[in-house]
Amino acid sequence: MAAAAAAAVGGPQAPQPELPAPGLALDKAATAAHLKAALSRPDNRAGAEELQALLERVLSAERPLAAAADSEEAAAAGGGGGPGAAEEEALEWCKCLLAGGGGYEEFCAAVRAYDPAALCGLVWTANFVAYRCRTCGISPCMSLCAECFHQGDHTGHDFNMFRSQAGGACDCGDSNVMRESGFCRRHQIKSSSNIPCVPKDLLMMSEFVLPRFIFCLIQYLREGYSEPAADVPSEKDLNKVLQLLEPQISFLEDLTKMGGAMRSVLTQVLTNQQNYKDLTSGLGENACAKKSHEKYLIALKSSGLTYPEDKLVYGIQEPSAGTSTLAVQGFAGATGTLGQLDSSDEEDQDGSQGLGKRKRVKLSSSTKDQSIMDVLKHKSFLEELLFWTIKYEFPQKMVTFLLNMLPDQEYKVAFTKTFVQHYAFIMKTLKKSHESDTMSNRIVHISVQLFSNEELARQVTEECQLLDIMVTVLLYMMESCLIKSELQDEENSLHVVVNCGEALLKNNTYWPLVSDFINILSHQSVAKRFLEDHGLLVTWMNFVSFFQGMNLNKRELNEHVEFESQTYYAAFAAELEACAQPMWGLLSHCKVRETQEYTRNVVRYCLEALQDWFDAINFVDEPAPNQVTFHLPLHRYYAMFLSKAVKCQELDLDSVLPDQEMLMKLMIHPLQIQASLAEIHSNMWVRNGLQIKGQAMTYVQSHFCNSMIDPDIYLLQVCASRLDPDYFISSVFERFKVVDLLTMASQHQNTVLDAEHERSMLEGALTFLVILLSLRLHLGMSDDEILRAEMVAQLCMNDRTHSSLLDLIPENPNPKSGIIPGSYSFESVLSAVADFKAPVFEPGGSMQQGMYTPKAEVWDQEFDPVMVILRTVYRRDVQSAMDRYTAFLKQSGKFPGNPWPPYKKRTPLHPSYKGLMRLLHCKTLHIVLFTLLYKILMDHQNLSEHVLCMVLYLIELGLENSADEESDEEASLCGPERCHDSWFPGSNLVSNMRHFINYVRVRVPETAPEVKRESPASTSSDSLGSLQNSGTAQVFSLVAERRKKFQEIINRSSSEANQVVRPKTSSKWSAPGSAPQLTTAILEIKESILSLLIKLHHKLSGKQNSYYPPWLDDIEILIQPEIPKYNHGDGITAVERILLKAALQSRMNKRIIEEICRKVTPPVPPKKITAAEKKTLDKEERRQKARERQQKLLAEFASRQKSFMETAMDVDSPENDIPMEITTAEPQVSEAVYDCVICGQSGPSSEDRPTGLVVLLQASSVLGQCRDNIEPKTLPITEEEQIYPWDTCAAVHDVRLSLLQRYFKDSSCLLAISIGWEGGVYVQTCGHTLHIDCHKSYMESLRNDQVLQGFSVDKGEFTCPLCRQFANSVLPCYPGSNVENNLWQRPSNRSIQDLIKEVEELQGQPGAFPVSIISETNLSKEMESVMKDIKNTTQKKYRDYSKTPGSPDNDFLFMYSVARTNLELELIHRGGNLCSGGASTAGKRSCLNQLFHVLALHMRLYSIDSEYSPWRKLTQLEEMNSQLGNEEQQPEVPILYHDVTSLLLVQILMMPQPLRKDHFTCIVKVLFTLLYTQALAALSVKCSEEDRAAWKHTGVLKKNTCDAEKSYKILLSFVISELSKGKLYHEEGTQECAMVSPISWSPESMEKYLQDFCLPFLRITSLLQHHLFGEDLPSCQEEEEFSVLSSCLGLLPTFYQTDHPFISASCLEWPVPALSIISQWCSEINAFTERHAEQGKALLIQESRWKLPHLLQLPENYNTIFQYYHRKTCSVCTKVPKDPAVCLVCGTFVCLKGLCCKQQSYCECVLHSQNCGAGTGIFLLINASVIIIIRGHRFCLWGSVYLDAHGEEDRDLRRGKPLYICKERYKVLEQQWISHTFDHINKRWGPHYNGL
Question: Which among 6, 546, 1579, 1588 is least surrounded, fewest beta carbons within 10 Å?
């Protein structure tokens, strides 16, 4: 009642303690009904007033917040109700009133009935799993909730699942955003037609109540907001207010979910301006309301956008007008006023953060349209609600409420307009926010719903000037972080750029605004308005120019930079998002001829902006040295629009190009970037740190390249095609700083480059020219050709997965561009160029994914090294592509040697760019090529094969693209006389190739060899005369000539032209005393390009006159010149190909080639070899021999390595090789010899220096997971399916042990059964041995090693020093022979009775062990320590089963169970039976022999109860009375209830070691009799009553036949008659009969049952014999396994005949008369069944036929797992886990890393891995689709067993494509689990600190 108490109608804070009329308070329903009736009357004024008064009381705004602010006041007013109570009360009232007296739930249901559910509109927040279908989407942002997606039909569509980043809403039913075919079943029906009209009275109350409720909410928000001092709202206060309002906002949210009818009422309320006016203004007298209104006005004030400097002008309502940079026209009639675009107290924070920053730049003010400057004015609830939502930084609940309303069309429009009106205010709040990331996501969550709808975007653009607002707001945002640009002219630069170090850019705060802008530009109607509006374009280019030249790099020349700035990330992201993406958006609308005008507009304003930029940075013609910026967005806008104009709009290129001077300026900066790339790769920028390499890589990286390097290269191509080619070429070499290198002289000085960088810079320059001339991306290739070229380039570098290809191929960044990844063209091109390699599994465990690899014909015809070079981020990828190409040629036999990159034919040029080819036909290039060929031929320094390769490539390009063939006649006319120009006569490469150059004048240092040469033999005057005619010159003067010529064209002042005759670089030449003076020398050359090529051919092939013109033999060659033999090859092939092309192009060339060949090769007598040649030949021979020697050595090394790997790595090696000496001691060796892998010595193991085996001990519960059915269990994927572990081996054994312990004496129980099914210790070895003392020092060294290892040395873990396999202990080898050969080779002829006695005696002597226990030797110490290790390997609960804790019986049980565990596991590794025989991989890992010695030593320390020795019970008849005497204490376990295999191990381990073979056989024989009797007893219980009677009868007849003891029929009948004496067969109620299967037992089926019962024992025994005595295991068929094993064990007499069917009973050999001992055994059971017949029977039937363990079966499709588990609640904490995981062994659902389920500092997964797998856990992470392995204290990510259609994993489900099970992988996982090899095969382990 507290709320009602504080009625705020009267004066300020009128205290009214008396409650309202009790009726009102107590019976809300009645009041509501009464009011509803009153309001339904025609004249409802009275009712309305009454309701108002009531609401006034109930919703009083001052209560809750006053309470929050001041608790005492609250206590006084509300009697301690606390703030929560009041609000709940208010909400109760509202619900009651809305329902008008009925129940609220019924009311909700009634309203829902009127919902025209055409749209889904479900709103979700971050991390929600939603779907996107590209096939159905119209807008790229389309998304569907899981329910709608699964209800719709999307088979075969291109869809994916994704985790929402920012939240979103379901678009199902909205035909603006998606195609109707994709709607789900619920939203397909346009149901509005058949929904009845809403009855007036249903929602009548809502219309009265809701305005007051919303107003009340707004007052709370006003009240709670206090303008903080530092203009930074303190998070805490805001959150407090929001928490208080949680119930109110949730209430509104629930209302929106009632459907369309309620939404339209809410829309009315929210948008009704009258309501708002009445409620907000009519509160004059209420002090509280006044106070909140004032707060509101103060909050409004700070919603402007002016700068802090203008504070003086800043009145409350008079905004300052002159505060922006740009006059934007056309703002006159703005309806949505943009607030005073002012960041009020901005400077306070900037001052504090930015002391060290450069001074901010304040832009000049110019007038801004008034309407944008006004403070916000609110006219409706919706507007003020949005205002507060922004002010409170977009609380999630408010956002959800506002979005939930969107399905209402009227609301959607109103809300969008309101949103636009507040846009500037949003930007302002965002900039100040501390949580800008969260806030960005929430903003986009809203805006993407509004702006993705084209119709809506268009309407808002027209009515609210959306575009103007957006551009202005972006501009304002960036203006706050501008600094002066230091590019070019640091002092006088007027240009300003954004400062990439500011938070705004660093944290991507601008992202939501840019993303909205890109979103609206994707709508054609909006983009058209933008492109038509000149004012907007000017403003936008202004915005783009803020990024032009940002993040300038200055080359560090002296010392390394101290602090590497990482701002380049911000810079690249900003250019891509803020400049490039809007550009791609605009370009996508300029596709047809009709849009020419738009392109002209953009190009025009772009050029204007560029001109302004050049002026601002004072750029003349030389870029400043040692500076580079990678950011030239204006250049790139210009280039991309040019490209579009030519490609799609058929514009004439020249009509949009500027004058020559502008072109020269335009080319400078992009060219500077290309040169800098070469410098960076030549390590010239190394002092700038790694980040500069990062920039060079990002610039060409796939997401950036088509917005960065591609436009740059294209722009350079355009400039080159329009500028003078000589000028362009010389500029290139000058920019790359290699002009000085291009001299004929053998020595030169380079003033701008260190010698070590020259070569790579020259390579860079030539490579750049090759790319420039051969790239056709924007010069005429179609989209499909581009896609194909990109794909081939990526595939040639490496085989790629489908997803990495999608990622690496630069698609147009704008989503609407058409080539979307996964589109039809992508798939068809991919299948045309590549073959799919299915995912394979390599031995050693590394998992491959499905890969695509290029088809052979792609290597043959399409491999394009130029494209590869352009697209490689890392230089090594180019090498990788070449290696793969080489391998292909070798494999296909096309070329054996080391090939050169192939020359690839280009697609034809678009006619507009024909001028580009003039570069190939200009004298400057020809001089360069000639010079380089000459230098290579003369072996000058700093030239590489790469240079030659590029030179030849350029020559070939020139020949391919030569002008029309010259007519030979004309050529012959102009002989040498007519050639006046210095180097070459013309500019055509074809004719210049044959032009001979005789002399060249060069400038060389005085020390150069050329200076000493004599001038040509003639008088000097003569020689000079001849020089003038014969044409000498040098490249430099030529470069200078070109520049002069050029500057004349541009009409610069002549004085300037004279200064620049030499390239500027040369002015710094003569540094004082730096180098010898230069002098001029004249070289005699007398070569032409053709003759140089032919000589090069000789040089490359290493033979004289190796070139012979092919057409002399085969004239055909000239007619059809496309010869495949020339396609692939090395330099020789390239030269031949070029000469052939030259000959084809002109007859003169052909003639000259033939002449040169004749000249060079005068016919020589064959035998003579000149000394020089001999030298080269000798050299060749020597080289050849050296090479052969090296090959031989390498081969030898490889084979050694291989043999080592085979012995060391037994993970997957073939079965036959056995590691080291352990299992292969020859019979004659008496003592085993071991090699220590640490010290390398070999010798026997001795007592004082024992040798040990490297072993890994691990606890294992694999055995416990065996079940008795073959089909593995499946992973549950519905609530109904559950897995219960009651039928696992571990559970069955547990039950059995507890049953025995309930009725029998504890100590005997612990001998009757093995433990270790769960948490048993498994011991495996890699087979290497070491001295134990060596091992200790090795461990010490590991402990001191600071390197972070994947294992914990303190826990004793290490890796084997030889094979690096993981291990954690050393098992001492027992001195003496490994294999007791001598003892078993003599067949024993003693009777079984003698042997039995010996066995008993030997067991009786406790100390009978060769090593005396008393003397502590090293060996016995080690044995003890390893025993301790074994115990500590498993948890206590897996070792202690005794009722008296700590009893020695426990240890006894544990020790023989370790032996059992290892034998059973080895059996499982062999596939569960011994049919295959031989040593398996499992056998190689086994170290049972050594383990047995250790266990035996320790077992001998315990003695068995002397009066109860199982051996006696088995071999002696006792007097009957002993059993009956001891009634008072619990009896011993009857011998028939014993587990025979356990007995075997106990007997053997109690014997002194080494054991003799005949003793072993004796023990086995005796135990087999017991086993057989158990089988018969079990069989008898399984038979029906009649069967039993029949058997009993037949047996009696034959009882006295001779072989009675070997006939199962007789024995069975005897067992039955013996057991009938007790109550075992009695008390079988009817229900029992049902359980026992009513099979009629035939003799065959009985024999089979008996054999199956005995087989497990025989298998274990045979394995044991194999390990103890080294006998081979025979292999056999499955059906004869029993007989083979029994004869191998010596149970079958050797003379046994196999012709009649085998009978298991023939193996029996009774030590005492059979029937009497059986009757003794049965009597024990009868004694027990007297009291417990039920249990007696259960204990008799031992289920010993366990099938192999399996992991759970997984469903085919991953989605079935994901949909069930990712929303499933955890059974422990009942929450939906953040990281759900499921155990693949038992199906338990766990929280990974969940603190909720933590117990004693162990998180749930780790805990489960201990309980379920004794420390090994295999978990499938539901949200990531990967499997994680926990092993003890370490874990590793194993990989995924689910792959998509392209054979790829999808870790973390990032791509969200459908995934399918990969059975091979799952099999491998299961195999590793069963064979305990996780530690060996998986390499990346890390500690988990119990936190998983």
Answer: 1588
The number of residues making up the chain comes to 1892
pLDDT tens-digit readout, 1164-1203: 334 444 455 555 556 666 677 777 777 777 776 666 666 5
Exposed/middle/buried for residue 660 (C-beta within 10 Å: 0-12, 13-18, 19+)? middle
Report the C-alpha gap between 28 and 31 in whole angstroms. 5
Supply the pLDDT for residue 1701: 66
Cα torsion angle, 1335, 1337, 1340, 1341, sign = negative
DSSP state of 591: -
Give the pLDDT confidence score for residue 117 in this predicted structure: 67
C-alpha angle 635-639-645 in degrees, rounded to nearest 5? 145
List the Cα angle 1174/1180/1184 in 5-degree steps.
Answer: 145
Q: CA geometry: angle at 741 spanning 739 and 747, to 5°?
A: 145
Tally: H helices and E strands in the chain: 79, 28
Q: In whole angstroms, what separates CA 1885 from the centre of its chain?
A: 18
- Residue 963: pLDDT above 60? yes
Look at residue 1062 in the predicted model and tell me its pLDDT: 35
Task: Give the tens place of pLDDT for each residue, 457-511.
Answer: 999 999 988 999 999 999 988 988 899 988 887 788 889 999 998 888 888 889 9
DSSP letter at 1016?
A: P
- Categorize the per-residue pLDDT at 1515 as very low, low, confident or very high, splitting at 50, 70 and 90: confident
Contacts of 664 (CB under 8 A, 6+ apart): 621, 719, 723, 727, 1046, 1050
* Bridge partners of residue 1764, in order along the sequence: none
The two three-digit tokens of residue 1878, written as one number: 């996780």
For 1229, the token pair is: 């060796």
Closest alpha carbon to 677 in 662, 692, 661: 692
Q: What residue has token string 């009709």?
A: 594
Distance CA 262, CA 1327 (A): 77
Query: 256 in helix, strand or coil?
Result: helix
- Residues ≥6 apart with Cβ < 8 Å to 806: 821, 822, 826
The first and second tokens of residue 598, run together, are 């738009």
Burial classification of residue 358, based on how many CB atoms lie within 10 Å of its CB (0-12 exposed, 13-18 middle, 19 or more buried): exposed
pTM more than 0.85: no
Say how many CA atoms lie within 13 Å of 851 toward its Cβ. Answer: 15
SS3 1628: coil
DSSP per-residue codes, 1294-1337: HHHHHHHHHHS-HHHHTTSS---TTTEEEEEEEEEEEEHHHHHH
Cis peptide before 1165 (omega within 30 of 0): no
CA angle 1198, 1204, 1205 (to 5 degrees): 85
What is the spatial distance between Cα 162 and Cα 580, in angstroms, rounded to a whole number?
26
Per-residue model confidence as pLDDT tens digits over 1268-1280 = 887 888 999 888 8
The DSSP line for 498-549 is E-TTSHHHHTTTTHHHHHHHHHHHTSHHHHHHHHH-HHHHHHHHHHHHTTTT
Q: DSSP letters along 1426-1460, please?
A: HHHHHHHHS-GGGT---SSTT-HHHHHHHHHHHHH
d(CA 338, CA 325) in angstroms, rounded, equals 16
The dihedral formed by the CA atoms of 1655, 1658, 1659 and 1664, expressed in degrees to the nearest 10: 160
pLDDT digits (tens, 9 = 90+) for 301-335: 766 654 333 332 222 233 333 333 333 333 333 33
* 145-151 CB contacts, 8 Å cutoff, 24+ apart: 145/120, 145/170, 145/172, 146/1763, 147/122, 147/184, 148/120, 148/122, 148/172, 148/183, 148/184, 148/186, 148/187, 149/184, 150/184, 150/1763, 151/184, 151/185, 151/186
Distance between CA atoms of residues 1129 and 1120, nearest Å = 20
Tell me if 1554 sits within 8 A of 1380, measured CB to CB. Answer: yes
Give the bridge partners for 324, in sequence order.
366
